[in-house]
TrEMBL record:
Domain GST C-terminal per the UniProt entry, residue ranges: 88-216
GO molecular function (one): glutathione transferase activity
InterPro entries: Glutathione-S-Trfase_C-like (IPR010987), Glutathione-S-Trfase_C_sf (IPR036282), Glutathione_S-Trfase (IPR040079), Glutathione_S-Trfase_N (IPR004045), GST_C (IPR004046), Thioredoxin-like_sf (IPR036249)
Protein name (Swiss-Prot/TrEMBL): Uncharacterized protein
UniProt xrefs under CDD domains: GST_C_Delta_Epsilon, GST_N_Delta_Epsilon
């Protein structure tokens, strides 16, 4: 039975998981959970994810949420020799650092720019743009070292998490990212290294961008 990914393509966390499945070439079935329709609160979904968020992964009798933890599970379970989640403790630690940073800092700073408008019809709080600029500078510096997010010589889960976040920001057009040269070069390069990029991330990021723009 193929693994099942419950989610929505507009959701950046869901796109991290979809890209991981594509890069690892794991067959999967995409089960759409439409947040606008309230699918996440249905009893059958709450059984597999009482936290009622997306994504959720179901692999046989095993179910879990939290996108970046799902990505590391998939790499451990299906990509044992893959460079996507390196086994060297220090290299893996840097990948993990990037994943936590993506959730708590990078995507957070992006959300602080786009979510107030999308969900509350408000402008971002003062200081949010300066914070995002600082965070983008850090991300640019991380990438500068080797052209990949974790300083490796090839794609890792850190790149998948960062591209889900960054593509969302770019598609909203809510922030001028042109000053971050290495980040933009990385974005163009890495898109071409992710199998079925458009299906797994590009289309969903565009949808998120259109949704944001519809609220302006
Ligand atoms: N840290 C979580 C965040 C998941 C998340 O916030 N998902 C949002 C959509 S992007 C959601 O499901 N919201 C609906 C809800 O929480 O009920 C992850 O990375 O998986």
């Amino acid at each position: 039975m193929p693994v099942e990914l419950y989610g929505m393509s507009a959701s950046a966390p869901c796109r991290i998981v979809a890209m991981t499945l594509e890069v690892l070439e794991v067959p999967y079935e995409y089960k759409t959970i439409d947040l606008m329709a309230g699918d996440q609160m249905k009893p059958e979904y709450l059984k597999i994810n009482p936290q009622h968020n997306i994504p959720t992964l179901v692999d046989g009798d095993f179910a879990m949420n939290e996108s970046r933890a799902i990505a590391t599970y998939l790499a451990n379970a299906y990509g044992k020799d893959s460079k996507l989640y390196p086994v060297d403790p220090k290299v893996r630690a840097v990948v993990d650092q990037r994943l936590y940073f993506d959730m708590g800092v990078f995507y957070k700073a992006i959300g602080d720019i786009i979510y107030p408008k999308m969900f509350e019809g408000k402008d971002p709080e003062s200081g949010a743009k300066d914070k995002l600029k600082e965070v983008l500078g850090w991300v640019n510096d991380m990438i500068k070292k080797s052209g990949y997010a974790a300083g490796t010589d090839s794609l890792t889960l850190a790149d998948l998490a960062f591209i889900a976040s960054f593509s969302t920001l770019v598609e909203t057009g809510s922030f001028d990212v042109s000053g971050f040269a290495e980040l933009n070069a990385w974005f163009e390069k890495v898109k071409g290294e992710i199998k079925n990029y458009e299906k797994a991330n590009g289309a969903g990021a565009t949808a998120m961008g259109q949704w944001y723009k519809s609220k302006l």
